[in-house]
């Protein structure tokens, strides 16, 4: 049974850092293209970052490029998202997702399994 469990969210001041984790079970993270998405209150779902299975290439939304880092630990079967230099606009519920894919329209989507989310709050 595939399951994704996020953790690591919390409340920080602007400029601070957090590391989000996504513990996977029922499959290996190295075998899947994994992504992080986020949703702020009253806004739509926003793709944040992707790490692909083969080679581990990484991709970032322009809004987080240079501040966030996606990675995975195959031994722990865990996906991570390091959030640095946080801004108030980064506040959102963050979700990890399995089997992300890039559409011709220029967007990332994930129609597989998702975690329940972890909340990130950033105060000014």
What does it look like?
Strand 4 (34-39) and strand 5 (45-51) form a beta hairpin. 0% of the residues lie in helices and 51% in strands. The chain contains no helices and twelve strands. It is mainly β. The strands form three sheets. A six-stranded mixed beta sheet has the order 2-12-9-4-5-6, with no helix packed on it. Strands 1-3-8-7 form a four-stranded antiparallel beta sheet, with no helix packed on it. A two-stranded antiparallel sheet has the order 10-11. The model has no long low-confidence stretch (mean pLDDT 96). It has strands spanning 3-7, 10-13, 18-25, 34-39, 45-51, 58-60, 68-73, 78-83, 92-97, 100-102, 108-110, 118-123. It is globular.
């Amino acid at each position: 049974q595939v399951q994704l469990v996020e953790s690591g969210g919390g409340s920080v001041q602007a400029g601070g850092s957090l590391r989000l984790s996504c513990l996977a079970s029922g499959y290996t993270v190295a075998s899947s293209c994994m992504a992080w998405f986020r949703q702020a209150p009253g806004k739509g779902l926003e793709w944040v970052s992707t790490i692909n299975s083969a080679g581990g290439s990484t991709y970032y939304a322009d809004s987080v490029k240079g501040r966030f880092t996606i990675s995975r630990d195959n031994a722990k079967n865990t996906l991570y998202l390091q959030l640095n230099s946080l801004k108030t606009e980064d506040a959102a519920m963050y979700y990890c997702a399995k089997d992300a894919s890039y559409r011709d329209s220029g967007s990332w989507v994930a129609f597989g399994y998702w975690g329940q989310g972890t909340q990130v709050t950033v105060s000014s």
